Amino acid sequence: MAETTYTVKGMSCGHCAASVTEEVSGIDGVSAVNVDVAGGKVTVTSEAPLDVQVVDAAVTEAGYQLVS
Predict the structure, then answer these.
(1) Residue 4: which region, alpha, beta or left (left: phi > 0; alpha: psi -120 to 50)?
(2) Which residues form the HMA domain (predicted)?
(3) Is the Cα dihedral 27, 28, 29, 31 positive or negative?
(4) In the structure, what pLDDT confidence band is assigned to residue 68 with cuts at 50, 70 and 90?
(5) What CATH topology corresponds to 2-66?
(6) What is the pLDDT of residues 15-62, one digit of tens each?
């Protein structure tokens, strides 16, 4: 299992968290997504380390920006 925390810009509410969770959860191998709206952090648990470009694409699809 791998757990990685990303910084996401633009999230401000529960709807934001739900959108990001839905998109990132759709990535193959992801088993859990935990969004901290106040801190702008998204922690992803997956079977193996994820390609950051795949995570970036999912966050962008949700309407937000992956900072790191």
Answers:
(1) beta
(2) 2-67
(3) positive
(4) confident
(5) Alpha-Beta Plaits (3.30.70)
(6) 999 999 999 999 999 999 999 999 999 999 999 999 999 999 999 999
